[in-house]
Amino acid sequence: MSLPPYLPNLQTLDLENNNTIVDLPSDLPNLQTLKLGFNDKIWTLPPYLPNLKILDLGWNDKIVTLPNLLPNLQGLHLEENNRIVALPGLPNLQILYL
Question: How far apart are the C-alpha atoms of 70 and 32, rounded to whole Å?
Fold first, then answer.
């Protein structure tokens, strides 16, 4: 199952424990919160999430890299995530859970 490729007004996407969605839309210009904890179907994130403020990848062992452009990210949850070994520049990061 996939979501539509363009969701211009979507601000929150919570796919924690949801193992039916296999792909994220490529264009999420207004997304502010993305929760993918305990999700074992999604392997990649969109390349540019300009308004993303909260990213939860706790207990997610499929995603191995973060997009290089996360200019507004303020909170990052990586608890029990051993796959991400490097973080891009995150100038506005205020909260980091490891």
Answer: 11
CB atoms within 10 A of CB 55: 25
Q: Which helix (H) or strand (E) holds 77?
A: strand 75-77
Model confidence at 2: pLDDT above 90:
no
Q: pLDDT class for 6, splitting at 50, 70, 90?
A: confident
Asked if 71 contacts 52 with a C-beta cutoff of 8 angstroms, the reply is no
Instruction: Output the pTM of the full model.
Output: 0.94
Alpha-carbon distances of 21 from 1, 3, 31, 73, 92, rounded to whole Å: 5, 7, 17, 23, 29
